[in-house]
Write a structure and sequence with these properties.
single chain; alpha/beta; Spore Coat Polysaccharide Biosynthesis Protein SpsA, Chain A; seven-stranded mixed β-sheet; 9 helices; about 40% helix; about 20% strand
Length: about 260
């Protein structure tokens, strides 16, 4: 008997991305149209104050494999991801695949994730920092800080993951549903991996090329500050010292 093919949804939070929203949706939907699995793009407009919502609503009438969810106000990156996770679970998708809206993640890498999904991995992470991975157009100081931070995180997590902070990843929906995630900003990526270090058993990596945001897009909201470093590193520290997270019971997940 052949194994059942995995279904998945691509979750993309957006906030004030009117300059790139249509390009992002079009490229991802075009790739999904060629994937022989049940799949859809879920774009979460996180209370944008520009034309992002209007663009997404128009595209939703043109693209059969696009679902648009709108927050009435800006709740943050973490809240947008949780909205997408809930949609994936309620829709019966096997995996949630997370991407950024600025196309610094290449949609043409999605089929490579699909191959790992077919193999049944629990967590599939893109990586800039292994053979075949690359960073292009990103300031050198950011690359250095990222490399050092990820080396520390990998040593603490003790997982076969070289790029812990990479937001381009796919996780089994059944595992995500057991997580009680609370972060509202980018550290949710590390919080999620902290939970995964206790809940998941198999991990895979996909070398990718990460690019910088385009000149026409709004500047990144990520900043390097001492408090930010702590918000990221507290999760691998918890994992290292075996501080187990509070997980949702399976009976609660299935409600």
């Amino acid at each position: 008997m052949k194994p059942r093919l995995a279904s998945f949804c691509v979750i993309v939070p957006m906030y004030n991305e009117e300059s790139g929203a249509e390009s992002c949706v079009s490229r991802i939907c075009d790739v999904l149209a060629g994937v022989p699995l049940r799949s859809t793009l879920v774009a979460i407009d996180d209370g944008s104050r520009d034309r992002t919502a209007a663009i997404l609503n128009r595209l939703s009438s043109e693209r059969r494999n696009l679902t648009v969810i709108q927050h009435d106000k800006n709740r943050g990156y973490g809240a947008a991801l949780r909205t997408g996770m809930k949609y994936a679970a309620e829709g019966g998708f096997d995996y949630a695949l997370f991407m950024d809206s600025d196309l610094t993640n290449d949609p043409f890498d999605i089929p490579r994730f699909v191959e790992k999904m077919k193999d049944g991995y629990d967590v599939i992470k893109a990586t800039r920092y292994s053979d075949g991975g690359e960073v292009s157009g990103v300031p050198a100081y950011r690359v250095i800080i990222s490399r050092v931070g990820n080396w520390i995180a990998r040593c603490l997590y003790r997982l076969p993951i070289s790029d812990c902070t990479n937001g381009f990843r796919a996780v089994r929906t059944g595992i995500l549903s057991q997580m009680d995630l609370t972060e509202s900003k980018f550290p949710i990526i590390m919080e999620e991996l902290y939970y995964s270090s206790f809940l998941a058993t198999t991990f895979a990596q996909i070398p990718v090329r990460l690019t910088n945001r385009g000149d026409q897009q709004r500047p990144t909201s990520f900043v390097y500050r001492p408090r930010v470093f702590w918000e990221y590193l507290k999760y691998p520290l918890k994992a290292f010292f075996q501080v187990r997270p509070q997980v949702r019971a399976l009976s609660e997940v299935k409600r």
